[in-house]
UniProtKB/TrEMBL annotation:
SUPFAM superfamilies given in the database record: UDP-Glycosyltransferase/glycogen phosphorylase
Ranges for domain Glycosyl transferase family: 25-191, 211-378
Protein's recorded name: Glycosyltransferase
GO molecular function: glycosyltransferase activity
Top EC class of this enzyme: transferase
Transferase among keywords: yes
Pfam families, sorted: Glyco_trans_4_3, Glycos_transf_1
Superkingdom assignment: Bacteria
Amino acid sequence: MHIVFVHRHGPGQFVHLARRLISDGWTATLICESMDRPVPGLRVFRYGDKPGGQGRSGEISGKGSVPYIVAGRRVADILNKLSLNGRKPDLVMGHIGWGGMLFVKDALPDVPAIGYCEYYFQPQGGDLGFAPTEEVSLHHRQTVRLRNTVQLATLDQIDIGISPTAWQKSRFPQEFQSKIVVQHEGIDTSRARPDSVASFRLPNGRLLTAGDPVVTFAARSLEPYRGFPQFVKAAALVATQIPEAQFVIAGGDGVSYGRQTGNASELRDRLVAETGLPQDRAHFLGQVPHQDLVKLFQVSAAHVYLTYPFVLSWSFLEAMACEAPIIASNTAPVQEVIRHKRNGTLVDFWDTNALADEVCAALSDPKSSFDMRRAARRTVVDRFELSGCTLRLQSMLQKASSLRARMSAPAKNSKQMRQPILERGHA
């Protein structure tokens, strides 16, 4: 079986699935703009120079959908060449957000197309307008609609959609939700696991161990979308009440989501200065290797995860799997996973005093969170464990591949054309 993955910065969410399929003897090809990590055995085609003006994930750009159309055409050209050279895939699976899947059916009309449906922008109920000071203007609403045009055109012609959480699926238009299956890509709970003798060495040489009063925060970038300003404000309050607390922050100074509002490192320095967070107790690591991030979660006495109503982070689920005590924002994607005081603690995203109080409580009485920590790991093992998730995804792909003959042959009647690809039980 030959599968082609399409992702702007691949393999992205397909990394675990690609490894699984390759180990099972599949041929796997990736078409991408850039690589975020290597996968042995994965053949890679890059679709040329970066089209200008695409913007970051979550950013509502005023440049329209032209760059995404360019990306879609380049991907279709590569698919067409593969077909002409005798390497036609049996399946194409790709992220629908950046245009790469837009013309897959024009290049390969008889090949099942599976779209990864990560996030559909709406003018209300999600990230846009979540900040009380953000005004959603007519221009914003127009650019949101433009941002979604490529996704709508892709949704119309893919055979199956996959969304990692039910809330993310719910953001898509109702008329397309019947073809979207909720299935997370999976968390490796054999690597992200508790370790009572874990340790983490800070850049200054200090060794932190499990049981120390360590407050952790992790995000791809330290930015408003992931609640970084609220964390710093709360951390400064905690620092005054618990002098021995150490604050360890993993994340880059760039902007991964939302709009650039200034220099990210200047934002960090300004927040630290304004709040009085002790610089000798606040340790900014930048982006760290994954194995170090796991160690950080293993020594955490209070892990803070804040997010706008947006896509759910892998790091959040990995922290849960490591049995780090979770204190998280009560926003929609988090509420799908955390039950207050059962497997974690929920606080209002904007209430830094409440956040500080919960962090202090976790540090002052570590034993009180024992049951919640155990329940947090069980949640991840039961719902997001890697082997189960990849097995279910592989099963979906195998069912989809059986459609190829039916898709290439003329339908005998209209009932055959309307037959669903997947049984409703998978939705």
